Amino acid sequence: MPDMKLLSEVKRIHHIYESREVPAVCFSQLQREVYHLPPLESALEKIQQKFRAEVTLDPHTADPHLCVSKDKRSVTLRKRRSKVLQREQRIPFDLEVLGSQEFHAGRHYWEVQVNDKPSWAIGLCSHSPSSRGQQQPRRWTIHLQDGDYVAGGACPVVLTLKRKPRGIGVYLDWELGQISFYNLSDNSHLHSFQETFSHSLKPYFCVGPDSIPLSLCGLADL
């Protein structure tokens, strides 16, 4: 557009807007609307509902100093040895027992009550730790020792917990090669191991030098 025409157009537009009246002010009342979405189901809740397994203890794998209950869901240290073991500084890792179930596929979840036990270890084991003359079994565990919560695998990791766990949830996904642990006190995720499994796995439990039982939660407890 030529300069003169542009200037004349600007003047015309300016005149149009100069002659316009200011519109009246309008008021409107806003109404508050509240919408409630259904709560999202946590990952742990989905696992608990879909993959919960009935896990029991195998008395034949228990250390002689351990006592397995008749329903095979609780294990504790025999009283005659407790006073001796309480003087030891470390967890005696020979105080072990395995689960009766053997997993070689699929997804499985179970829960263990640790309550106020000062030392314990929970997880999975590649084969019986009591076997002799064989390759050292592999373990993937969460254990409490000397006040520290540790993920015990190939490279132990000290965990920082917001809340002391009174129960531990264990989740195995065989195909994905994943073992995960959860704090049942606040449903938080504690740690996950990522592996490629080549052998069957069994639930693993280690009882510390105290008289407080380690107990499995059965499906009947739901």
Automatic annotation (TrEMBL):
Signal peptide (from-to) = none
| Domain B30.2/SPRY residues, every copy | 35-222
Q: Which Pfam families match?
A: PRY, SPRY
InterPro entries documented for this protein: B30.2/SPRY, B30.2/SPRY_sf, Butyrophylin_SPRY, ConA-like_dom_sf, PRY, SPRY_dom, TRIM/RBCC
User: Known SMART domains for this protein?
Assistant: PRY, SPRY
Q: Matching PANTHER family, A to Z? A: E3 UBIQUITIN-PROTEIN LIGASE TRIM
What protein name does the entry list?
Answer: Tripartite motif-containing protein 75-like
Taxonomic lineage per UniProt? Answer: Eukaryota, Metazoa, Chordata, Craniata, Vertebrata
Q: Which gene encodes it?
A: LOC132534632
